[in-house]
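Can't attach files on this board, so I'm pasting raw text. These are the components:
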Amino acid sequence: MSLFPRATVLGYPRIGPNRETKKAVEAMWAGRATADETAAALAAVRAGTRARLSELGLEAQPADFSAYDQVWDISSSIGIVPARFELDGALELASYFTVARGEGSRPPLEMTKWFDSNYHYLVPEIGPETQIRLVDDRVVQLATEAPGLRPVVVGPVTLALLAKAADGAPEDFSPLSRLDDIVAAYVELLARLAEAGVEWVQLDEPALTADWPVDVPALVSQAYGVLASRVERPKLLVAATYGELRENLAPLAETAIDGVALDLVRGGIPADVELLAGRTVVAGVVSGRNIWRNNLRASAALLDELRARLGEDTRLAVATSTSLQHVPHDVSRETSLPEDVRSWLAFADQKVGEILTLARGLEEGWDAVEQELALSDAVREARAAHPGVRAGEDPGAGASERVPYEERVDAQRDLGLGALPTTTIGSFPQTSEIRMARAAHRAGKLSDEQYDDAMRAEILHVVKLQEELGLDVLVHGEAERNDMVQYFAELLDGFLATEHGWVQSYGSRCTRPSILWGAVSRPAPMTVAWSSYAASLTEKPMKGMLTGPVTILAWSFVRDDQPLGVTARQVAWALREEVSDLEAAGIRIIQVDEPALRELLPLRADDQAEYIDWSVGSFRLSTSSAAPGTQIHTHLCYSEFNEIIDAIDGLDADVTSIEASRSRMEVLEPVRDRGYARGIGPGVYDIHSPRVPSVEEIEEQLRLAAAVIEPERLWVNPDCGLKTRAYEETIASLANMVEAARRVRG
Ligand code: GLN
Ligand code: ZN
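---
Top answer:
Structure tokens for the assembled complex are below.
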């Protein structure tokens, strides 16, 4: 048996239906579980997944589990471990986590967004000295945990393209120069898998669907020329997820790989798909990204077209477009959703059902599944006819100019901000007391009034703390927000929240995206009471805090039945009303967070202009009603400033804070090179790690920044919000930050 199965998924959620993975690893980090206990708990999650998939009828299963991140899994397995950790060989579970999270003076691996998703991976660090070779048999172990599993590994080209140069590497060093060594390590891995009896291996190569400033087709030939020519290997399935293969299809087809998985949700059938005739083609027709039921009839048509174009000796299979890691487990548990909306949805388990249906239709003819196709049609019609879906107009992009920046600077002078103003990104630690109060409120054990009192007490505490620390622009701390998107989603019409719809964001962190299913509008102010209460407690400027339209879209499951731009403008209009209400309440600084701006950026350059047009336009729509004297801030949560500097410029915010510490202020290069005239706050320390940065360390970062940015425009802030941190490290870190700013001012 070597034909690829008719139905599979490219990956399945790893967090467990009740976030068992998160709980297991966090118990270990907290010292409540041993490494062995944790490993056993993780193995139980995997066994649970296999049992569930079998129960659903899916025989061909991926072995794609990760305890933290799939990129780190393969990089650590082939020796790509930063020298600063002084580790060698196969990593113990504890060391695996140490590198992911940092320890003492050793910063963790940089973390950044995985393609245009809301998942974050750990960036491999490769230098000329890195000893790349297979050191760990994790992949083999997972693959042989049960019979017939298909290991899933990030492919060599993607790994090399995502890597960055290790500390101390020469200026002109590129990790791509080590591709041959990486490939050699994969050759070893493939041999081990073959030896263990593995029949197919899936190499995930999402990098092949994106544009890079290098010759990717040449890398494809270089890597797969070697891998595919090996005799001792399983069959190779290259998964081109997240977009279109375009120029990389032909070089792949020239190698002897056995199959290609295409993302047919993001891209259409490739123009040159015939080049794959005779191989296995895995058609990713069911989205691994959204939660809407598949249009089965459209997918059937797509499969027919593929079959016609590829001919009978091509093995055609049905799958998801990407791993299902981006969607929750099971919609049938969402019993509190309105029944009509629930009937429009498919989470991971329902998608498995759709794939099985399509595979059966492909095998037996579409008549065999006509009932399912008809049901899918009926669901779509009902959804389109629903009044909440049909209501709402496109607010249009007019009215989005503020007066020129220079005039705003004058109008904002009376805010009294000097050189290097210090601030935070908004949230303060979400303590267990806060979470317990929220849970008690939800459960009806705390009245609205008691809950408000608890949140006000927290705000008072946070405001006093900031005054003591000597910060210049204060925040209310966002205690009342379970999540920066969900909070707004719950207050806006057109959204619904799930109960169990968790997805992995990074490591053990999970989020529960809301479902944006209908027309969006704001029935009442959302943040004004909290912000004005906080402002009443201090003489210092209080920053109002909103989540921007693009981020609200990016971190929700968004309706797929109208252009994203229209949905974004509806959200923007609701935020614009909120900005006006904050101003009316006397709030003079308003931050509209857009950490996800880059996340949705199309992977292909020629698709980007359209995106930037509607995303930047919707941000401006949300903020442009502000008076010149109101200072608009935005926060962007990543460090690839260069890629979207035009977009950032287009946002026209008065102040932009960005992530910078993990990349050692590299983000400032484009600022220096092409000039950026407005306020900017390059994060001076990394909040994703519990490590407390020293004054000297922050001072050094600030001096790097001060060399490029004038003192009046240089803001001093952490990389991101503090909600995931504990108070102890937060206070110590902020005190050091304020002191570092004082020294640099002097
Ligand atoms: N204001 C938010 C916070 O501080 C921003 C979080 C983010 O960028 N992801 O938590
Ligand atoms: Zn952030």
